[in-house]
Amino acid sequence: MGKILTRMGDGSRVEMTAAEIQQDLEAAAQDAAERANVPSLTDDEIKYLLDLYKCKDRVVGVEEGKECCLTYDNMTSKIKRAHIPISKIQQLLLFERGLGADTLELAHIDYSFKQCKHVVQYEKPNMEQAVLQTIAPIFYGSMPNLGLYSVPDGPVANPGDMLPLGKIEESKEAFEQMAEYAIKDMVYVGSELYEKAGADGINFDTTAAAGDAEFYAALKAAEILHDKYPDMGIEMGMSGEFILGLHSEIEYNGVRLAGLYPQDQVKLAEQAGVTIFGPAINIGTNESLPWNLARSIVFTKACSEAAEIPIHANLGMGVGGVPLTLTPPLDALSRASKAHVELCRLDGL
Amino acid sequence: MGGIRTAGDLVARLQLNRGMRIDAAKKYVAEKLGVSVLDLSDTVVMSEVREELDIGRVNETPAVAKGIDAKFRIAELLDLAINCVNMFKERVGIRAYQSFD
Amino acid sequence: MSEKIFKEAIEAILKGDTDKATDVAKRGLDEGLNPIELMDKGFIQGINQVGDLFETGRLFLPQLVYSAMAMEKATEIINAAIPEEKALVTGKVVVGTVEGDVHDIGKTIVVSLFKANGFEVLDIGRDVPVERFIDQAEKFGAHIIGSSTLLTTTMAMQKQLEQELKKAGLREKYKTIVGGAPVTQRWADRIGADAYAQDAGDGVKKVKLLLTA
Amino acid sequence: MRAAGDLVARMQMTRGMRIQEAKAYVADRLSIAVSELTDPVIMTEVREDLQIGALTPLPECAKGIEAKFRIADVLGIDINCVQRFKTKTTHQFRR
């Protein structure tokens, strides 16, 4: 059999034999299973993935009946980012009516709760207008972005400056202070957009990018919002396969957050009142897409099996088996989407 | 799933506001709409269903519900509180939740 | 006997115990162990294990910093005992996050691991203009310039660094290494950087290769 | 513009080339393989390097008419609006 055309994690084209692809699939699945202490892929699942790469169709899709929901983060920046001058409302309508999006998301171009706080009184009329004109459920979305609460962008001393000096306790305190500021902003923005402007829910995007203290802040904010508004939809999208322990000891409901893999992350999200959870598995650019996809499937499947709430895996630039490129190739994106949905019993992407 | 081209927005609502997994959410919506689960992702079937139920569709025809108007009906149909619908009712003085028979 | 010392050295690094690492390094040398062997089979094994545990989420940043500090001390003691011609691979590296980008947690991890591996590191911080990279490399007598960026919008600064080095006639004087979430080997190749590091551990390997090339 | 579709289309439109011929022409002018014309990863980089317009342009990337000036150059063709722009601006300068 001839070689199979696929890609590396950086998007470059590569030709591999079926045996090489199988080897990558098996090695990656095993590696992920050992890291997260979860089951590896079965022989049937490996065969499924191998067949997916053998298939020469440029674009593939899920089987009839396995369709799932498609949510987008930072929706009102996506089209603008392509330098198409278009208003937020127009973008939402374009996604809803033109592109068939299942959910909508209003967002500020600087996608951080801290920055949204300053413009919340301008975002509320946008949401009020959007809910009158659209039909699909609508989030207000943003990132916790804990780094913005430390110097030079915020009031707290920067742990990045203290750690190299061995000031460990001081850095932990700084992370805790940053988390408190972030919780306040997330609850404030979430409350304003939900209670006063009519959003269906809030999306915490790229959660825990700044480590365990950021995960704590997002969980706590979700918990407070859920207590205030039991019907509020809360989506939490993650940023990496395990929680980076930058603080290292911070806990939520008695569970240490550092080092948690998706199957444990989702359980805490459920406790906090999150209604949709999005695991995010980053790509290794030096490995093949089969390697990356198998790895992402192992983590995501374990998460989906552990979950009671819907799982919307993150798939896009550099996550979920999609290459780290500004323009994700459809051959890669459609294969990653199909495999995640069908093998992980996903609720959405 | 296809958003308002199909029943994607309705299924997403159950996931978002009730935390339902995909199969449960689809089953719930299909029952409420009186269609099969497979029909939910069928643009042809759903276009007709949405028009008949007046819950908004992509290609609008005159007098078909749009925006908040459609969401009033969606809330009723799915037996699901929709935040902006409730807010709208309060603002314009419609007090009862199921109020527009 | 030596096996026991190697094991103790590994433990000292894993625990991030500077006092113990100092003691083990001195004791090992006093007992006549070959310093390079003590480094390779003891301390370096320890820091490699720390790197692996960090990479899989089983050891966290504060512990990594303690381990790096212990390693730095042990390296200092052992380096002093190695005849100059047999000295371990070492070099001076300037590391910073490019202008427009204030993300520096990843860079902090890189700096810790670089120091732990015996490189002399000058951390020039975040939001660093291209001219400052060059200026600081010149003053520090660096062999390598490492730049980090987390944003797609600031990647262009790494390209600019290459161009400015060429303009200043300094491109051949330094090796350059690039890293950060959106950065890839393809990017490094496109802009003409000498190496790309996927993460801090990979950075250590690549810097060693650059220094011996 | 995710790939090289607009460039190939230009050759069909302005020179009446069939698809294979148009692809071969564009690939040759861009010094890449025909198979790369539809690869968004390669083409994003090529378009950026040649400054012929990118889908999500980074700062200083050519946009609009500026990109088309360069496309005309790269493909060795005249583009109507570019010609008109040149005529108009040249005229203005002369005045």
Task: Briefly summarize what is shown.
The complex is a heterotetramer of chains A (349), B (101), C (213) and D (95). Chain B is 55% helix and 0% strand.
> What would the average pLDDT of chain D be, to the nearest integer?
88
Distance linking N and C termini of chain D:
37 Å
Helical residue percent of chain D?
55-70%
Number of helices of chain D: 5
Largest sheet of chain D: none
- How many structural domains are formed by the residues of chain B? 1
Number of strands of chain D: 0
Q: What low-confidence regions of chain B span 5 or more consecutive residues with pLDDT below 50?
A: none
Mean pLDDT of chain B: 89
Task: Kindly report the greatest chain-chain contact and the residue count on each side.
Answer: A-B, 42 and 39 residues
Based on CA atoms alone, the radius of gyration of chain B comes out at 13 Å
The largest sheet of chain B, given as strand count, sense and whether it forms a barrel, is: none
Task: Quickly count the helices of chain B.
Answer: 5
Write the element-wise H/E pattern of chain D from the N-terminal end onward.
Answer: HHHHH
Structural classification of chain B: mainly alpha
User: Overall 3D geometry of chain B?
Assistant: globular
Instruction: Classify the oligomer.
Output: heterotetramer
Helix content range of chain B: 55-70%
Beta-strand proportion of chain D = under 5%
Return residue spans of chain D where pLDDT drops below 50 for at least 5 consecutive residues.
none
How many domains make up the coordinates of chain D?
1
Keywords, please?
heterotetramer; B: about 100 residues; mainly alpha; 5 helices; D: mainly alpha
Please, could you describe this protein's structure?
- The complex is a heterotetramer of chains A (349), B (101), C (213) and D (95).
- With 349 residues, chain A is α/β, with parallel strands linked by helices.
- Chain A is built from eleven helices and nine strands.
- In chain A, the strands form three sheets. In chain A, strands 3-4-5-6-9 form a five-stranded parallel beta sheet.
- In chain A, helix 5 links the parallel strand 3 and strand 4.
- In chain A, helix 5 runs parallel beside helix 7 and helix 10 runs parallel beside helix 11.
- Chain B has one domain.
- Chain B has 101 residues and is mainly α.
- Helices cover 55% and strands 0% of the residues of chain B.
- The longest helix of chain B has 12 residues.
- In chain B, helix 1 packs across helix 2.
- Chain B starts with 7 loop residues before the first helix and ends in a 9-residue tail after the last helix.
- Chain C has two domains: 83 residues, Orthogonal Bundle (Methyltransferase, Methionine Synthase (B12-binding Domains), Chain A, domain 1), CATH 1.10.1240.10; 121 residues, Cobalamin-binding domain (Rossmann fold), CATH 3.40.50.280.
- In chain C, helix 1 crosses helix 4.
- The N and C termini of chain C lie far apart (36 Å).
- The radius of gyration of chain D is 14 Å and the shape is flat.
- The model of chain D has no long low-confidence stretch (mean pLDDT 88).
- At the A-B interface, helix 4 and helix 5 of A face helix 1, helix 4 and helix 5 of B.
